[in-house]
Fold this protein.
Amino acid sequence: MTHPSLIVHGGAWFIPPDLRTAYIAGCREAAREGWAVLQAGASALDAVEAAVRVLEDDPTFDAGRGSYFNQAGAVEMDAIIMDGRALNLGAVAAVQRVRHPISLARRILMRADLNFVVGRGAEALAQEVGLPLCDPAELLGKHDTGGWAPPLPADTVGAVALDARGDLAVATSTGGTPDKWPGRVGDSPLVGCGAYADNHSGAASATGSGEMLMRIVPSKMACDLLAAGTPAMAAARAVIRYLHARVGGYGGLILLDREGHVGLAHNTPNMSYAYITPEGEIVAGAEVSET
């Protein structure tokens, strides 16, 4: 039996000092919830969905209730969830009235006829599968970008888990960049970019400047490095170095390998995160040392 493992992130950008406590606490709570699901014997898919739902409910983060407004003054959210067993996935983009986009993505994953649904079609599917639509006012939205300017804040959230059966899963959710063009979709819901999971290698969730991240397919790159024998932490750092060297991008990455070893890296001033040690303790912070 495999020892379960779990890691979450709350985005990679400049986190103002007065907000760092809230970001760390939110990641810690998400990790605690996901870990409780794993400890109860549930699947990695269940764990990452549960962890990301916590982050979507927390207005601290740019996902769900804390999503940024676009140029039209509306919230448009994206999400993806992927199962490492058979590479099944579900994704949504530009959804406006779904309180938990990650749960809608999970329902899509369960279908054989769909992988990725957007906009009004995604909202109609939510109603069909019994996920109630919410009042847009419940998605509080944020106007102020605050702090670090190049690039804009990338406050995406994500979770990666390995369960006791040795199965990997990943989930990523976002409200997108502040003041974005209506209909803009970044890397987050794109398979291999915002997330990737494969039981044969590992699982990863990326965050950062979406237009740059999607050019290098970072989550799939990280899993390929793991498959080639690169240690988890080294793989995460290699992807982030390549992101900047190749396309001048900024962002962060979390991952787990097949044995549950943690990897995390970023080249932004901060990335909020939390993970569970083999002893069951939660380690959380807002920046990762290169040492």
